[in-house]
Amino acid sequence: MALILCLETATRVCSVSLSRDASLLSIRESESHNVHSSKLTVFIDEMMKEAGHSFQELDAVAVSMGPGSYTGLRIGVATAKGLCYALDKPMIAVPTLQAMATGINLKFQVPGSRFQVPGSRFQVPGSRFQVPGSKTEVLFVPMIDARRMEVFCGIYNEENVEIREVRAEIIDEHSFGELLENHLIIFGGDGSEKCKPVLGNHPNAFFLDSFAASAKYMIPRAVEKFVNRDFENLAYFEPFYLKDFVAGKPRVKGLL
């Protein structure tokens, strides 16, 4: 019966959740920009009090490991390390895009969703896969905005297995072309919002509007890693940035 605190700060969302095994006990989150440094520890404290648990009762702390915002990842990992060090608890790293794929999968299966068609959830209106009993594979592509027309993205199947490595990709009309010809692809995340005008006309491309990363989607992977004792080294763990951080030039007159 593992009590796990999950921290999600890799995107614009600041989110924390508390779970008992796979069951969500409490959650706090905000999609306001640039609130991670001011809200993260406040959310954690509020949530723990609301759930009626002390920090010492925690069995582990899980943190979203990236890719994503450089600053957000640093805040989340530093907070997780501080808690784990002070409490002498293990730290679990959950791939951000894999957790998002879990969330997209859950949204895809929500009763009443336009993807739910009696007989086969692959019979989506307009899709060439409207065949009773179709076994066509559905793929989930979570996307994180990386500015301009670039996104951080991964591709996952229904078992949440990564079938292509996570990468930074510039989106154009040819992106995912071969996969879209043979699969139904569900896109989600803030990066997918700018891709919809480019890929949205394909009959096998579907976009989950307003889908965002959340600490609650980290829970299944965090529990799995806890059971397997797949913990991180607090001294040496670093977030998965994917791209090198490039500092902007100062705009104050007289500074180089």
Outline the structure in words.
The protein has helices at 36-51, 70-87, 96-108, 177-182, 190-193, 196-199, 219-227, and strands at 3-8, 14-20, 23-30, 60-64, 91-94, 138-145, 150-156, 162-170, 184-188, 205-207. The protein is α/β, with parallel strands linked by helices. It has a five-stranded mixed sheet with strand order 3-2-1-4-5, with helices on both faces. A five-stranded mixed sheet has the order 8-7-6-9-10. Helix 1 crosses helix 2. The chain starts with a strand and ends in a 29-residue tail after the last helix. Residues 111-134 have low confidence and may be disordered.
What is the secondary structure topology, with strand pairs?
Elements: E1 3-8, E2 14-20, E3 23-30, H1 36-51, E4 60-64, H2 70-87, E5 91-94, H3 96-108, E6 138-145, E7 150-156, E8 162-170, H4 177-182, E9 184-188, H5 190-193, H6 196-199, E10 205-207, H7 219-227
Parallel strand pairs: 1-4, 4-5, 6-9, 9-10
Antiparallel strand pairs: 1-2, 2-3, 6-7, 7-8
Helix pairs in contact: 1-2
